[in-house]
Amino acid sequence: xxxxxxxxxxxxxxxxxxxxxxxxxxxxxxxxxxxxxxxxxxxxxxxxxxxxxxxxxxxxxxxxxxxxxxxxxxxxxxxxxxxxxxxxxxxxxxxxxxxxxxxxxxxxxxxxxxxxxxxxxxxxxxxxxxxxxxxxxxxxxxxxxxxxxxxxxxxxxxxxxxxxxxxxxxxxxxxxxxxxxxxxxxxxxxxxxxxxxxxxxxxxxxxxxxxxxxxxxxxxxxxxxxxxxxxxxxxxxxxxxxxxxxxxxxxxxxxxxxxxxxxxxxxxxxxxxxxxxxxxxxxxxxxxxxxxxxxxxxxxxxxxxxxxxxxxxxxxxxxxxxxxxxxxxxxxxxxxxxxxxxxxxxxxxxxxxxxxxxx
Length: 359
Ligand SMILES: *Cc1c(COP(=O)(O)O)cnc(C)c1O
Description:
Blueprint: E1 4-5, E2 29-36, E3 40-48, H1 60-63, E4 66-68, E5 71-75, E6 81-84, H2 86-99, H3 107-120, E7 132-141, E8 153-163, E9 174-179, H4 196-200, H5 203-209, E10 216-220, E11 228-231, E12 234-240, E13 244-248, H6 258-266, E14 273-277, H7 281-290, E15 293-300, E16 304-313, E17 316-319, H8 326-339, E18 350-353
Parallel strand pairs: 1-3, 9-10, 9-16, 13-14
Antiparallel strand pairs: 2-3, 2-8, 4-7, 5-6, 5-7, 6-18, 7-8, 10-11, 11-12, 12-13, 12-15, 15-16, 16-17
The site of pyridoxal-5'-phosphate (PLP) has 14 residues, from β12, α6 and β15.
């Protein structure tokens, strides 16, 4: 791909000079390219970070035809930078595009765009413990039309911004509310795609339970409201007897997390067994009460591993034996050691970006 790199504008800021806030602080540059029926993907550019300007009738603003991704760049001890399994995020971006009747990107070109952007913005990859540069690829429908059909034009862009550690003081547990009022996604729906509407649909319930002391909502399957699916924007896992890790099997309504997959692959090498299963909520709650389930944790790029201390359901709190527990701590350390390049990567999960001037 031929990426034109435009010079920085007068508003460019010195990297990491000020205190940054995840999701609100962005780097000086962004990537963008356009798709049209006549030209396909074209005009790939890295430009100064800028506002986008849209006609009020632009399709994405009405019918939500949009997708996104979330991945990170990590500062290695040698000063270079690691991406973690960026190929999986790219493949998922294209699966999301397919589900939302959008145009796929060339995976090589998408990855090249991320690498070129991170290399240009390398000074924005922070050095602190647990810090990283968050990367947010996005695609939106840009046709100006209220007609309900797949857009005939798209904008693909990538923004990046520094992120602090999800947990500033060790692995702090989250409390989870199990809802049977609403559902997040249905089989055959869009739950397996990273598309805005899924998250919009989750807000009402997550806002309602926040003042009750729960930071996240656990979603059940939409049909029987009986099986455990996901927690917030994370997958969920349960530890039996400190040894066996179980996560809900992919049902078509669960987002296929890269962290989830990494835990499944890593667990056996750390001395655990791991499996995917259809998990009934009743069984899970019973096993938390009896202590057979020793730990519960969420998995996702943002937190890596988020220990859960209790599940609230039908007016009762089910308190998890260990939060954080030894398995969560072990997995967190093993995964982040690979991500940051502190440990060897026998799985081929990392992509090293060489930073100019670092030997
Ligand atoms: C992104 C996401 C996850 C976690 O995926 P990772 O690839 O591990 O970051 C899980 N569930 C939902 C709903 C998500 O949006």
